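Throughout our pipeline, every protein is held as a single compact record rather than as scattered files. The record that follows is passed on verbatim for readers who wish to inspect the format.
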Amino acid sequence: MSNFLELRDGIQIYYLKDLVDNPKAIILINHGFAEHSSRYDYVAKKFNDANYSVYRYDLRGHGRTKSELGHIESFQDFI
């Protein structure tokens, strides 16, 4: 199942959720420049194994987000 969150300007951000029952905490993973959220499958699994739930997403212009790959209008859009 694909998960998308629509932003104020219509861009649809792709996200993944790796949830466990009764987590100690919830962790949000923000990938680096020229990466994508799926590169952190191993990290999310390790956190899940330690009983943490994880959310992660692809930034604008990255991964499966529905926008032109490698392109952003302004770095302000990341804020």
